[in-house]
Backbone:
């Protein structure tokens, strides 16, 4: 597993939305993990289950959102929160907490449809913010392609440029999806890939249509040209 712990960009404000999302993930995960008897039932209600969405899409629509916050355990949660902080702080500083939170939850939820498209009859519950984080990574790669991503906490080296990390990550996702598959691995690779593609599109759209994007990006990337 390749982990990113931060970047070299300049941030001027605290990422409020990120900490709200992280706290919500923690509470939702505790609601599933802590209760010995009721945890499995809570998980079944909050998780995205492709077959349920196929049969009753309107009734199951809410699970596209609730499943983002629930995680299968501490390792799953902590790993995703590290990615959230690493990629999310600079994006939130760029677009603001309201847009960041809305896009992360709203567009990130659509990533689950990737796994639904390849397995609409699957009964396996899917949980976690990985799809939304993949969306975030895709947008980050478009907006900050040359940002230096730290591979070790608190150290500037070794690092990978954002586009390099994304290239390695997407190659691993595709290889794992083809060679192992979701059912065998228990990892929703199609959700990851769908989220990443949605993020790429969102990043391009933001750069194209939002106001004053060049100046906003430049304010955070003074050190990135080196």
Residues:
């Amino acid at each position: 597993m390749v982990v990113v712990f931060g970047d070299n960009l300049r941030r001027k404000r605290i990422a409020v939305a990120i900490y709200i999302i992280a706290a919500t993930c923690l509470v939702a995960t505790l609601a599933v993990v802590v209760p010995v008897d009721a945890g499995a039932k809570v998980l079944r209600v909050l998780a995205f289950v492709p077959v349920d969405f196929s049969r009753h899409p309107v009734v199951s629509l809410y699970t596209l959102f609730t499943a983002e916050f629930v995680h299968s355990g501490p390792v799953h949660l902590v790993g995703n929160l590290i990615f959230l902080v690493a990629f999310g702080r600079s994006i939130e500083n760029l677009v603001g907490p309201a847009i960041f939170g809305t896009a992360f939850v709203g567009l990130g939820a659509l990533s689950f449809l990737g796994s639904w498209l390849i397995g609409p009859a699957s009964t396996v519950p899917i949980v976690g913010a990985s799809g939304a984080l993949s969306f975030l990574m895709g947008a980050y790669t478009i907006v900050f392609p040359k940002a230096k991503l730290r591979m070790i906490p608190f150290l500037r080296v070794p690092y990978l440029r954002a586009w390099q990390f994304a290239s390695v990550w997407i190659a691993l996702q595709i290889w794992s999806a083809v060679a192992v598959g979701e059912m065998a691995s228990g990892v929703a690779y199609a959700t990851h890939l769908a989220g990443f593609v949605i993020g790429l599109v969102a990043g391009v759209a933001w750069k194209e249509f939002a106001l004053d994007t060049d100046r906003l990006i430049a304010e955070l990337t003074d050190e990135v040209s080196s």
Summary: The longest strand covers residues 148-150. DSSP finds 13 helices and three strands in the chain. The CA atoms of residues 32 and 43 lie 6 Å apart.
